[in-house]
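Hi everyone, sorry if this is the wrong subforum. Our group has a chain we'd like a structural model of before ordering constructs, and none of us has done structure prediction before. Sequence below.
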Amino acid sequence: MNIVTNHHKRQFAYRNEVPANVLADQFDHLDAADVDGFFRYRRYWYHVSDFTVSTSPELADWHGFHADSFFSGIAIRISEDGETYQVGLILA
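Answer:
Right subforum, don't worry. Here is the predicted structure as tokens:
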């Protein structure tokens, strides 16, 4: 398993920064109180609640992952203060 990342730290987006059609299509399950934790990666919007914690040793340095397919996914590392994140592309 390889994780490809540029190690850039980015700020999470707030709910009001996400396009309304994306909120309606992808995040209708979220409560309106979930105002932050959104981010865009590779032209697709994500929320931290979309990620699952892994017990895999290969993902020990990452806080969670989101599977795109059987062979690929997205890994996320969140800063200690919860304000920034790093993402990486998981390739099996």
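For your construct planning: The chain has a mean pLDDT of 94. The radius of gyration is 13 Å.
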